[in-house]
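Re: How this chain folds, sequence and tokenised backbone to follow
Notation: Tokens come from a learned vocabulary of local backbone shapes, not from coordinates.
Start of record: The labelled sequence and token lines come straight after this line.
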Amino acid sequence: MSTRELIILGTAAQVPTRERNHNGYFLKWNNDGILFDPGEGTQRQMTYADVSASQITHIAITHFHGDHCLGLPGVIQRLSLDKSPHDVNVYFPASGECFYNAMTHASLFQNNVQLLPKPTTEPGILFQNDSLVISTLKIDHRTECWGYRIDEPDSRSICMEELAKYGITGPKVGILKRDGIITTDDGRTIRLEDVSVARKGQSFAFVMDTRPCENAIKLAKDVDILLTEATYLDSEAKQAHEYMHMTARQAASLAKEAGAKHLILSHFSQRYQNYSEHLQQAREVFSNTHLARDLEHFDFPKRIRFQC
């Protein structure tokens, strides 16, 4: 049974507040765990959120502004301290490789983890296995910045009644799944699509620190959950454009245009004392919007039961 959950570790932009830690987001995806943009204090937030270092199999950094990466040294040393039993892929903009190298050697520690740096130079697929595909596109910020998308590969669900109709049982079922076609004992050719229904994979997009742009829409296309920045309100739209960020309303427009199912807003400027206006302005455009709060958990929507 699949386990998919988004855990918010921090939601503050640039400067943390008394209530909000710097950025940090952890996505549980079956046996994989993806840590996005670990800002300062991420290691401590992981403790509060019951996220262990051993759960991290991938780290994805959008860009090298401090609020998105300065927690990386602590996370790396925690991985070593806990003797992570697996390699950890680390994705980041290739132009910031000097910063990555500096943070991986920020202080003395005994290195017991195998980090696999994956500096990004081109859009496309970064990693894939049977459970997920991690892909990336460049977005529009003051420094090189990449958004990330997670997709579950589409699959097909077998209809047992249809299998029985054709007398397909036992090892033959595995052959049909593997090859997509089988010949029955009475000479009929049966294809996988004859005895199954399509099952659309789930998806997630992570879009941080960008002005509205075409690649942000592509990343968010039809996703189940879109987590994106909403640094400013309408009243600071000019400043948002100048500093290459989005307002809450622009984030909602992104979700609407992309056909996302669920929008979660984060990365709030410290200038605001509360964020009810962010939610109000976004919901005027896209009703299924929520505010991210530190240590909050979001489950992926339940799948609709298929009909054979």
